[in-house]
Amino acid sequence: QQIELGGYEHFMLKEIMEQPESLRNCFRGRLDHREGRVVLGGLSKYTRDLVRAKRFIVTAQGTAYHAGLIGEYLLEDLAKVPARAAYASEFRYRNPIIEDASVILAISQSGETADTLAALREARERGALALGVVNQVGSTISRETDAGVYLHVGPEIGVASTKAFVGQVAVLTLIALYVGRRKFLAADVLAHYIDQLEKLPDHIQTVLKQSDHIRDCVEKVVDRDNWLFLGRGYNYPVALEGALKLKEISYIHAEGMPAAEMKHGPIALIDEGMPVVFIAPRGSQYDKVISNIEEVKARGGRIIAVATEGDEEINRYADFVFRVPDVPEPLQPLVTVVPLQLLAYHGAVLRGQDVDKPRNLAKSVTVE
Length: 368
Ligand code: AGP
What we know:
five-stranded parallel beta sheet, binds 2-deoxy-2-amino glucitol-6-phosphate, 14 helices, alpha/beta, cytoplasm, repeat, single chain, glutamine-fructose-6-phosphate transaminase (isomerizing) activity, transferase
């Protein structure tokens, strides 16, 4: 085990730190810069069906579901195809309507999650084309799909999923670009995305350098038992993921939600010193997020902001700032989630928890 840990104290930290490398592996052979194409060999047989698809249903559980929610945004934004993410456990029992030309896209690190498998089977029986976005090669889900794209991020051992999430979001981005380019996305726009995607491993490396800074900040608030995570647009699912990471390994109660939703009830929770994490990179909804931050600040909340490098304005509001490089909005989750993984990791260690073996949890949930 010591050898596998490669000098890290926990698998979770190792897997967070190796994300630049695992993302490079995920992209290998898939970003064709010269020809300006995204290459997804696993989908090539079904390209026409994907271009003609009228609807994508993205199904998963837990962290993979959060990736799926980002997939919903990506598919609508970049491929202009109606998409919705659904918890597999809910989807399978709701007597789902599968219209013609539907695609079910199952996301799973292990490829063995019982509910995700059942949802996939249900939709496939009702006529959907079944795609998998899976890490574990040869797993049940990967065998039961018509086609798919492996993550190739390497085995994930830590119970808290980190590098698999980044791999899932990266693959969903590639799928959205693959379909989008064949529909309407201009060659130069795709070329720009390919350029930006190639830079992501280095960007993540830059974020990882803040690990000590993040630990020092977390130390000042880690005694608090209730946290909120807020974001908008592409960063709303990142808020959900940040909250899940914190809960599952540190046992701190945390809720994630769209920042605007706060005013519809949860704002009542905010009292002096409550940590509120805002995922607030520069982008189309930045000003709205700032006004949400002001509201929390006025009520005494302690603001932890994930913000773009060079954004000085945020310093006026935030007690602690974690920086991410400036990337196009659809790619933001791939960098904004990283400080939240480190936040959860350090929070759990500071609270003395067993990060790799959180209580009551198994790496994959193979029973309902
Ligand atoms: C997250 O950290 C958890 N390990 C959990 O939510 C996980 O993502 C979920 O159980 C789905 O697992 P899968 O990706 O193997 O299907």
